[in-house]
Amino acid sequence: MSRYGPRIAALERQALRDSRALARRDGEDDPAAVDPSSYLREGAGRAILLYVDARTGDRFVHLSPAEFEALERALNHWLECYARCHGVELDATFSVRKAAELLLDTRNIDDVAQLLTGVPPRASHS
Asked: For the DUF8055 domain, which residue ranges apply (predicted)?
């Protein structure tokens, strides 16, 4: 286990709690009543930044396969929550590496989520 293991485990547990809490709301309230950006700023963005730190910090940190998979599961749970708030059911299987590359390019977690999920749809320019 790397030094990031406990943080990754905590992120995955929080992502699962957030996903379950949002699923419980589905029958009761409008899921859109939850701010979709909160799943990005407080969730997916933290997972991506942990990955970036592990790869670009003082020294390269090798994440075990289990840690890497847990980090991607957390990211994908939060992206699913984000999409659900927009009324879109999504089975997210995005790469944390791709998300990190997009974050470094765009410097905006909302743009990262939109580019990965297609939610909300981009306005077409005619």
From this structure: 2-120
